[in-house]
């Protein structure tokens, strides 16, 4: 199946398959897409081996050989450093650019030496401006809250701006002193020994993120998109994110969305059938609401820093990072990834929970339009947890559970697909 692409990357020949075309954050149809994968550092090898088996089994179960993935290994992190002397070889970047869609395990961020996080670097190179984190509960997973099943949200976090833009200067540096002087000329007093960080939030960056969040809500029958911000304090950054979000909804999705203001001002609180509600919440209130009224929320669109906090808080609410999937999606490229780190103390012990990468694989199935395979992965993983067959991290919080290895957990999921 697929065409022969006579090319090598990092010395490896491209497998026979099809090149996906990604446009406006959506993948073209394919029956054998070439998908580059980065195994990841630390526990990455154990996790990837398990995840790949589960994803392949789901595809086989659903399409019986009519669809399959042409996996293509590309290198980053410690494996790349050891084999090629570089943390992120140019060939890896080019392969991801060519094939558009990739999946990765966790990568070590080298400490010191001025090397940037590889995850951040990949996001920047491919302008992956949406960080997408679906958060839902799988029955049986130990949770710190009483009714974790009430939370079922998809978080769209802006991924390129805000305090993550990296514009920061140490206290008493030449740059900080100059900026403090400049601020003085605007009538703003800043203590002279302050470090200075800049938080840029643009209309362009905000609106392209909110656009994707609304499109997702419409395509998936989600009832609302909530703009999460801290606009009561940071009016021209966080507050502007909110305003630009509403403006975009009105300009581009007026027929299919209703703002909260209109809902109560004109429609007496009665939501028209099939439309998506656009509302907004101040970030601190949002953190309360996901705990106290989780079922009132569906898709959350957030600025970068708020989204970072909110994603992990929501993941903790339904059972932690071990099973929290994620994707970074731009207009022409998408990378699916573990949301946790490399957990190096468990490397090569075959004990770690591979759930995060398995569920990221399910997100990738959805991205490919292979909804059946996504559903099969969710159902089989859910059944395995309900049977109380789990890795150490969940077993230690459950009573009467059977602790299994990473590889055995994958086998149990695959067995549940067959039954
Ligand atoms: P970490 O690797 O996420 O591990 C911290 C702890 O979280 C582990 O000791 C373990 O807790 C738990 N954990 C993580 N993954 C798990 C899984 N799959 N299943 C079950 N439990 C899991 O965080 P870190 O130690 O701060 O970071 C280590 C390295 O990872 C650093 O180099 C960091 O830069 C990098 N990192 C990479 C990514 C990424 O690639 N996306 C993200 C974050 C960090 P217990 O010990 O309690 O079992």
Please tag this protein with its features.
419 residues, alpha/beta, Isopropylmalate Dehydrogenase, 3 domains, eleven-stranded mixed β-sheet, two-stranded antiparallel ribbon, 19 strands, 17% strand, globular, binds NADP nicotinamide-adenine-dinucleotide phosphate
Question: Secondary-structure map with pairings?
Answer:
Layout: E1 8-9, E2 12-13, E3 22-23, E4 26-27, E5 34-38, H1 44-63, E6 70-73, H2 78-84, H3 90-99, E7 101-104, H4 118-125, E8 130-136, E9 152-158, E10 168-169, H5 174-185, E11 196-197, H6 203-219, E12 224-229, H7 238-252, E13 257-259, H8 260-265, E14 276-282, H9 283-292, E15 299-302, H10 304-317, E16 325-329, E17 334-338, H11 355-368, H12 371-386, E18 389-390, H13 392-395, E19 402-403, H14 406-418
Parallel strand pairs: 5-6, 5-7, 7-17, 9-15, 12-14, 12-15, 13-14, 18-19
Antiparallel strand pairs: 1-2, 3-4, 8-9, 8-16, 10-11, 16-17
Helix pairs in contact: 1-11, 1-12, 1-14, 6-7, 9-10, 11-12, 12-14
The structure holds NADP nicotinamide-adenine-dinucleotide phosphate.
NADP nicotinamide-adenine-dinucleotide phosphate (NAP) is lined by residues 106-109, 119, 321-322, 337-338, 340-343, 352-353, 356, 393.
């Amino acid at each position: 199946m697929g065409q022969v692409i006579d090319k090598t990357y990092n010395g490896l020949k491209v497998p026979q398959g099809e090149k996906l075309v990604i446009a406006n954050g959506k993948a073209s149809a394919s029956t054998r897409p070439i998908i580059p994968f980065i195994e990841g550092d630390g526990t990455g090898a154990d996790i990837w081996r398990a995840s790949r088996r589960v994803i392949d089994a789901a595809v086989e179960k659903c399409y019986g050989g009519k669809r399959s993935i042409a996996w293509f290994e590309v290198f980053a992190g410690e494996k790349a450093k050891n084999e090629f002397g570089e943390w992120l070889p140019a060939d890896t970047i080019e392969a991801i650019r060519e094939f558009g869609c990739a999946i990765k395990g966790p990568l070590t961020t080298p400490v010191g030496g001025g090397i940037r996080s590889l995850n951040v670097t990949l996001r920047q190179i491919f302008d992956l401006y949406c960080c997408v984190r679906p958060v839902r509960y799988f029955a049986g997973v130990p949770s710190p809250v009483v009714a974790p099943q009430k939370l079922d949200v998809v978080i769209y976090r802006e991924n390129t701006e805000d305090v993550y833009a990296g514009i920061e200067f140490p206290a008493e540096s030449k740059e900080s002193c100059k900026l403090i002087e400049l601020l003085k000329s605007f009538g703003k007093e800043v203590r002279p020994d302050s470090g200075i960080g800049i938080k840029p939030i643009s209309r362009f960056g905000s609106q392209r993120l909110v656009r994707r969040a609304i499109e997702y809500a419409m395509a998936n029958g989600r009832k609302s998109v909530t703009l999460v911000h801290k606009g009561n304090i940071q009016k021209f950054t966080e507050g502007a994110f909110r305003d630009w979000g509403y403006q975009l909804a009105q300009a581009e999705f007026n027929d299919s969305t209703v703002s909260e203001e209109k809902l109560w001002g004109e429609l007496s609180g009665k939501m028209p059938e099939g439309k998506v509600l656009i509302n907004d919440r101040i970030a601190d209130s949002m953190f309360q609401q996901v705990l106290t009224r989780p079922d009132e929320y569906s898709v959350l669109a957030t600025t970068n820093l708020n989204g970072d906090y909110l994603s992990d808080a929501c993941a903790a609410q339904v059972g932690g990072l071990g099973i929290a999937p994620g994707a970074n999606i731009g207009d022409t490229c998408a990378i699916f990834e573990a949301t946790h780190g490399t957990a190096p103390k468990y490397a090569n012990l075959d004990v770690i929970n591979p759930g995060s990468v398995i569920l990221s694989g399910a997100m990738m199935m959805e991205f490919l339009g292979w909804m059946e395979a996504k559903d099969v992965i969710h159902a089989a993983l859910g059944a395995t947890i309900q049977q109380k067959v789990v890795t150490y991290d969940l077993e230690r919080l459950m009573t009467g559970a059977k602790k299994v290895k990473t590889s055995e957990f994958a086998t149990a999921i695959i067995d549940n697909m067959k039954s």
